[in-house]
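Work through what follows:
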Amino acid sequence: MGKCKFCGEPAGFLRSSHKECKIKDDAEKQEHEASKQKIISEIEKAGVSESDLPMLEKKIEEIAESNKIDNSTKNSLIVAGWEKSVDRAFDDGILTEEEQGNLTNLMEHFSLSQTQLDHNGAFTKIVQGAVLRDVMNGIIPERVKIDGNLPFNLQKTEKVIWVFQNVEYYEQKKRTQYVGGSQGVSVRIAKGLYYRTGAFKGERVETHETIHADTGLLGVTNKHIYFSGGAKSFRIRHDKIVSFEPFSDGIGLQRDAVTAKPQSFVTGDGWFTYNLITNAAQL
């Protein structure tokens, strides 16, 4: 006779648990999951509105203790709640100073590190939001710390706003081919006399294709866009760009020059790239 895996008492022939024990265990599991979601929800709300953080911490400790949630899991839930509050802060596309302050206070109160909060890119998003807010208000932000030397020849009074790494740079190339060509034919006019029509290439057809030209750093300053890769290096003045095209993973642009071809940069974050460059061009 088997024993119940929940209570350890005899469960009956070919049975591994009592029905009532299983029902109780399922209920406890549901309550445990609900308590974890409760912690996430409480942190999420505190991240978007001013809260009594000591009281919040006490409430979370009580939920964790009564539902047997260990410290490691509790900390992971707090991080998850912080990430959700970041998403809520960006619902309208703008990070206000108040929202940033709430998130910073929450981070400091629970001693959350940048590494913890940036596991899914949430902390970087906060920095990006603050940078965009500065640029949109006509302020040149100084929130990015650069380690090492940049391969850009900056001009006087020029300041770096952001640097994207491992950016794929694409150029549009024109290719020409001929369609409907002939090798030429010989036409007999009379015995022993032939007239040969000339060979021709046919109609010229031009096509355009986008090719990957290089991979490197893309820098955005208050005056230029810089690119530096293994094969290509250049800068473009903001006022020489006549149009921008948003992509889900980057940005395309067209320079003001007769021979200029469309250029595009894949940064992996089209929303931030497009908003940053288009607003930096207005500084």
Q: What stands out?
A: Helices lie at 19-48, 53-66, 71-89, 97-109, 114-117, 122-136, 270-280. The chain has a mean pLDDT of 85. The two ends are 80 Å apart (CA to CA).
